[in-house]
Amino acid sequence: MQSSMTLELRPSADSGSSDVDAEISDGFSPLDNSHRDVADEGSLLRRAEMYQEYMKQVPIPTNRGSLIPFTSWVGLSISMKQLYGQPLHYLTNVLLQRWDQSRFGTDSEEQSLDSIFHPSKAEATIWLVEEIHRITSSHLHIASLWGSDPMYHSFIDPIFPKIETSS
């Protein structure tokens, strides 16, 4: 009796690697990847929970008042991150990108946003949305979004301000 073996090649889950994962199947039982999914999901939940707990601790700047010229919401957010040394929440970054995308095809698409919205008002709007995301977002929701977006890392800011701990 001859046994049939198949080899299934997939790109490695490590995005920075050119390696390939391989699994061998005897052709009789389906490949079971559920153990990987559960482990990955658990890891994603833990990361989302740690991220959300960290973001809750980052204080919203209170000394604001600079008039930041800007042409797009994402552009304004980049300037704010540089000026205040603060990250913006993943959900805020996603929202700002969508606001910019929603302008495509409008009469004001080519118009600089700071000529439509006063820079102070626009900045205050972003900080208000940021406060909502930092305080009230569920790590379960964040993990769910991250799980459906392989590029979610691109919306997480690599800025880590020192958090004052009360002793």
TrEMBL record:
Recorded protein name is Predicted protein
- Gene3D superfamilies from the xrefs? RDM1 protein domain (1.20.120.690)
Region Disordered: start-end pairs: 1-36
InterPro entries reported for this sequence: RDM1_plant, RDM1_sf
Query: Cellular component per GO?
Result: RNA polymerase V complex
Q: Which GO terms describe its biological process?
A: gene silencing by siRNA-directed DNA methylation; siRNA processing
Q: Name one Pfam family in it.
A: RdDM_RDM1
Lineage, top-rank taxon, reads Eukaryota
Q: Tell me the SUPFAM superfamilies matching this sequence.
A: Hypothetical protein At3g22680 (SSF109920)
